[in-house]
Amino acid sequence: MTGTLLSIQGLTKAYPGVVANDSVSFDIGTGEIHALLGENGAGKSTLVKMIYGLVKPDSGTMEMRGAPYAPPEPRSARLAGVAMVFQHFSLFDALDVSENIALGMENPPPLRDLAARIRTVSEEYGLPLDPYRTVGGLSAGERQRVEIIRCLLQDPKLLIMDEPTSVLTPQEVEILFETLNKLRQEGTSILYISHKLEEIRALCDTATILRLGKNVGTCDPREKSARQMAEMMVGSELQTPKGAGATPGEAVLDVSGLTLPAPTKFGTALKNVHLRLHTGEVLGIGGVAGNGQDELLAALSGEMRAARDAIRLKGQDIGHLGPTARRRRGLLAAPEERLGHAAAPDMSLTENALLTGAVREGLATNGFLRWGKARKFAERIIETFDVRTPGPDSVARSLSGGNLQKFVIGREVLQRPEVLVVNQPTWGVDASAAAAIRQALLDLAGDGTAVLVISQDLDELMEVADHFAALNEGRLTETRRTADLTIEEIGLMMGGAHDGMEVAHVEA
Amino acid sequence: MDMDSITPALLLASLMVAATPILLAGIGELVVERAGVLNLGVEGMMITGAIFGFAVTIESGSPMLGFAAAAAGGAGLALLFAALTQLALANQVASGLALTLFGLGLSSLLGQDYVGLKPVQPPAFKIPLLSDIPFIGRVFFSHDLMVYFGLGLVAAVWFMLKYTRAGLILRAVGENHHAAHALGYKVVRIRILAILFGGACAGLGGAYISLIRVPQWTEGMTSGAGWIALALVVFASWKPGRVLLGAWLFGGVTVLQLNLQAAGLAIPVEYLSMSPYLITILVLVIMSADKSRAPASLGRIFHASG
Q1: How many C-beta neighbours within 10 Å does residue A265 have?
Q2: Cβ distance of B184 and A73 shorter than 8 Å
Q3: What's the sign of the alpha-carbon dihedral B236, B238, B239, B245?
Q4: Could you state, in order of their start, the residue ranges of all structural domains in chain A?
Q5: Three-state SS at A96
Q6: Residues of B in Cβ contact (< 8 Å) with A346
Q7: Its pTM surpasses 0.90
Q8: Where are the domains of chain B?
Q9: Is domain A251-507 classified as CATH 3.30.1700.10?
Q10: pLDDT tens profile B173-214
Q11: Regarding the domain delimited by A4-234, which CATH topology (the fold level of the hierarchy) does it fall under?
């Protein structure tokens, strides 16, 4: 680490009604992995867009190796050696890998030469990639490789990565970190945006923390605990969710011998799943992604019908019923994917509240919508769960991930479910929103609701769940008390070759 | 019935002529749609091109000037569409339909003084030597310049889309305009240029009808060719080669049914008249049953946000 690569002095950018960045200053050293931390809406994205030339700052200056740097457009940023891997991949599904990479380069060589270079570079950095495959058919991890290699082919001095691990499996994260460490050794600086604190502690040399657009501190992430950094981000003491300690009562949901074929070619079949859920209990279901989590949620919510007696709610057979009938009986669900599954992206929050709340909240009578009541319900969700949005007329898409997630979970919680099933309730959500969501789930259980949390985040399950079971290739293990489990036992329950990675993640 | 009156060479030669208007309009619209814009105003731009080309040819006596004016006229109308949809962010479907209605009205107004006149015919351009080859020479190498221009344009568009950086960028803009913008490409500028190109091509296609194929001016003389061109692009799965095939098929059945009518086939004329539309769409539907799909951003409004 010798010298400063990029020095940022007093960058300010205001949008109507909000100051996204308020006089932010910090330096990025050469060959340094510099973390940029902050909650959703803290101004991280705006800041990197200014560095990448997509947004012009209102005031403030940047210096690249001592020379003034003010890119008017991404092209000049790329020429200056700045490359960026986007959070929402900026890829073209219908084009192949080499075409996608050519589009991100200033002077791409002919496609055939480029393909050869892609192969060389991708193997050199341990990110194998076939240049002729169509991007639409690639996995999230492979798509990210395309972006990274697009950047690497331009020999960047500064690589900006916006939430690179939010879509990756633990194995892919491992590979990515190896690549980034290699780049650091070669003297490339990396600006790494994330809110996964353990990752930052494992990877980064320096961390700059943004809160409400202001730089609230720069620190060495290895010397701080995750909790300390989280508190700097939030600006207050972080509340660890506390269970109300209700003793589980009688069984409300009884799943026995639930077997379902895989819904799609890439899906997982559920094989003879048994579980029993009691009032006031939180049951956590862990497992590596793609082992039947989505299918289990679909089977419980009613999106996928099962045999009549495979699912029983308070003694009644409900396996054959659809989602609306199950909602009426008190079994509610919040699926994983916020945009498109849990919420309709282009509909307002009021409309989204109506979509699942119509039955239990009485938002529709005789087929006619009761807009006033629906709007009040949406407002109640926004207020109770501190959803930051201009109001219930905003479309779901306009909310940040954490805020929309709070809305989606809140919408179900406020319908007083008897059984609530959630999948990945805090995926891609910042620390304080995640804590709020977990607290809401625990409060709900404290009031006697049976809660089933499906999650790939073991820390989360250990924090909220009374009982734990794991999904592995569509099979569910037996249920164990969380308090009695050791990390090794959890690893064994999750089965397969993925244990080591997951366990390491917990211990970190 | 007299089938002997239908000679294959003449039939195939007139197929090339009949296919040219929708080929020109179709290849222009293909470029527009590959850039992610759905311009339903092809019919309006064609008929505008038809009257511009006709009027300028009559006034100047030069068919070349006429075609140039037709391209300018079509592009002018397209510019209106571009301003509405790319700058004012208006809905593309509504704007395109409006453009067609406006073009039909404008052309009738401009064409009032030109009904019944005869334009100067451009000379057929026989390619030396090649046109002397029996049969093939008659079919392929004895046409006017616009037929060759249309074929050349299809080849050029195909090459541009497949092998050049400009083509790659155009496809990228049509595929994902947000990503293209994030990479620093000028989405709106590229789309406006594509729309103008499409308008010019539609104008040329219209003028080919009024100057060569018919050659005279009557109101609404494009009679749905613009809509066929639009359908052609969709069913050709946005591939230039298939647009050419579809245009030839449509032209071929059109010419054949005219010949059959003339030969007195015992089928009601109405069935014969609808046959080119039916057969073209049927064949293209079958061809488009592969996995190719529309440009992902087609018809979606792009608003650059931050």
Answers
A1: 5
A2: yes
A3: positive
A4: 4-234, 251-507
A5: strand
A6: none
A7: no
A8: 3-123+140-287
A9: no
A10: 999 998 898 888 899 999 999 999 999 999 999 999 999 988
A11: Rossmann fold (3.40.50)
